[in-house]
Amino acid sequence: MAMNRQRLFPVFIFLFGAWTVQAKDTDQTRLAREEMVAKQIAARGIEDSHVLRAMRAVPRHMFIPENEARFAYDDRPVPIGHGQTISQPYVVAYMTEIAGIKPDARVLEIGAGSGYQAAVLAEITQEVYTIEIVPELARWAASRLQLAGYDNVQVKQADGYYGWAEHAPFDAIMVTAAAPHIPPPLIDQLKEGGKMIIPVGNPYRVQMLVLVTKQGGEVRTQNLLPVSFVPLTGGRE
């Protein structure tokens, strides 16, 4: 778990281009998170105690531009600029639970976006790697994670289609953008016995969230539920 993370967040105004974020956790935002977890996540069947604790702990509003921060704890995705969004809280929790993240897991996330999903993962395990293809968002995610005290996350600006071979194999891979197919490099980098969660399908239509497992050299897929994610940009092998 992220043992070095600060539990009390300072009052700090962070300027990032045209974005401004009030980096402060208050009684009001903590109450909003409790309500979010109770009504949007636990009530819909998420039971993993590590996931519920992580969703309560991560200050979601710190990962959203100020002009959208009022929607931070709503039951909806929120725009973060550059045509990207921060996923609906339930979807973040669901994907994290299905991935079965353990405290000693090495996890790769494709599509850092604002850094929020990586922060949730960092509450559960000590080794998180996240890739973002948009340079501005990669810098934004790195700065947000640093400010929030998640020093166990490495952020890389690159094409996530090809994964991060230097740190492979991974116990879990979470892809937070829709791909027309499962990228072969990510399958190669998935550890034996590992799990990958990825939305597959046309990025401009409803996709299917797919669980990919690798066991005994065999790759299996299981359709989970329909979702709607922004497209995975980059390589198309």
Give an account of the 3D structure.
This protein has a single domain (13-227), classed as 3-Layer(aba) Sandwich (Rossmann fold). The chain contains six helices and eleven strands. The chain has helices spanning 27-41, 49-57, 89-99, 116-122, 135-147, 184-189; strands spanning 13-16, 19-22, 78-81, 84-86, 106-110, 127-132, 153-157, 170-175, 190-200, 207-215, 218-227. It has a seven-stranded mixed beta sheet. The chain has a two-stranded antiparallel ribbon with strand order 1-2. A two-stranded antiparallel ribbon has the order 3-4.
The number of domains is 1
* Proportion of residues in helical segments: 25-40%
Shape: globular
The CATH class name reads Alpha Beta
Helix tally equals 6
Please indicate the percent range of residues in DSSP E strands (runs of 2 or more). 25-35%
User: Which ranges are low-confidence, i.e. pLDDT below 50, for 5 or more consecutive residues?
Assistant: 1-21
* Alpha-beta classification: alpha/beta
| CATH level 3 topology | Rossmann fold
The strand order across the widest sheet is: 7-6-5-8-9-10-11
Mean pLDDT: 89
Rg, Cα atoms, Å = 16 Å
Distance between the termini: 35 Å
Order of helices and strands: EEHHEEHEHEHEEHEEE
Key attributes of the depicted protein:
237 residues; alpha/beta; Rossmann fold; seven-stranded mixed β-sheet; two-stranded antiparallel sheet; 6 helices; 11 strands; 28% strand; globular; disordered N terminus
